[in-house]
Design goal:
Elements: H1 3-18, H2 25-32, H3 36-43, H4 46-70, H5 77-92, H6 96-109, H7 113-135, H8 144-166, H9 174-188
Helix pairs in contact: 1-2, 1-4, 1-6, 4-5, 4-6, 4-7, 5-9, 6-7, 7-8
C-alpha cells in the first residue's frame, strides 16, 4: 500500500477503536506508520482524512449489503428479504469495526457536506439495489414505489444493525423480523384491524 492508503487504513482502525472525535493525528500516524506531514500532504487536514476514512468505511458497509443481496435468490419477495437479512446478520460480527465507523458517519454528516453527499449517494444506490432484489428486477427498472420499498428495508437494516451494536443477544433474527413484517401486513389486510 502507498502512504495515502496506509493513512486511510490507520484512520479507519483508530475510528473503530477510539471513535471519530477521540482520534488524534498522532494516533493515526502510529497506526499507519506514516508521519504527521503525510496527513497534510495527502488530505490537507486530520478532519479531511477522518472524513475520507468514514466514507470508505460506509462504502464498505454498502458492499456488505450488496454481498448479502447476491445470496438472496428465493422465489417470493419476503423469502428473498429473509435470505438477505440472514446474510447481512451473519456478516455483522466480522464487520463490527466497519459498522461502528459507518454509524459515526451519520453524526459527522451534519457538519461535513462532503460526508452528507456521499452518504446520500450510497443510500440512493442501496435503496434501488435492495428494491431490485426484492422485486426481482434490475436496479434501473426500480420506480418510485420500489424506491420507497427499498427505503423501508434500508431502515430495517440500519435499525437492526444499531440494535446489534448495542445489544447483540436481543437483536431479532431474520426470521423474527419477517414474522413481524408479515404480522403487520396481515393486520392491515382484509379482516385486519387496520
Amino acid at each position: 500500500m502507498g502512504q495515502r492508503q496506509d493513512l486511510l487504513a490507520g484512520a479507519k482502525r483508530c475510528i473503530a477503536e477510539k471513535g471519530y472525535s477521540r482520534t488524534t493525528a498522532r494516533d493515526i500516524t502510529a497506526a499507519s506508520g506514516a508521519n504527521l506531514a503525510a496527513i497534510g500532504y495527502h488530505f490537507g487536514s486530520k478532519e479531511a482524512l477522518l472524513n475520507a476514512a468514514v466514507l470508505e468505511s460506509f462504502d464498505g458497509w454498502g458492499t456488505a449489503i450488496e454481498q448479502a443481496r447476491v445470496g438472496s435468490e428465493a422465489a417470493e419477495p419476503l423469502a428473498r428479504l429473509e435470505q438477505f437479512l440472514e446474510g447481512f446478520l451473519a456478516g455483522s460480527a466480522e464487520q463490527r469495526a466497519t459498522l461502528v465507523a459507518s454509524v459515526q458517519a451519520f453524526a459527522e454528516a451534519e457538519f461535513a457536506p462532503q460526508v452528507q453527499e456521499q452518504l446520500a449517494a450510497t443510500y440512493e444506490r442501496n435503496r434501488r439495489s435492495i428494491a431490485a432484489m426484492l422485486l426481482d428486477i434490475e436496479p434501473a427498472a426500480v420506480d418510485e414505489a420500489g424506491r420507497q420499498l427499498g427505503s423501508l428495508v434500508l431502515a430495517v437494516i440500519i435499525g437492526t444493525a444499531l440494535q446489534w451494536l448495542i445489544e447483540p443477544e436481543a437483536t431479532p433474527s431474520a426470521s423474527a423480523l419477517i414474522a413481524a413484517v408479515s404480522a403487520l401486513a396481515m393486520a392491515n389486510g382484509p379482516g385486519g384491524s387496520g
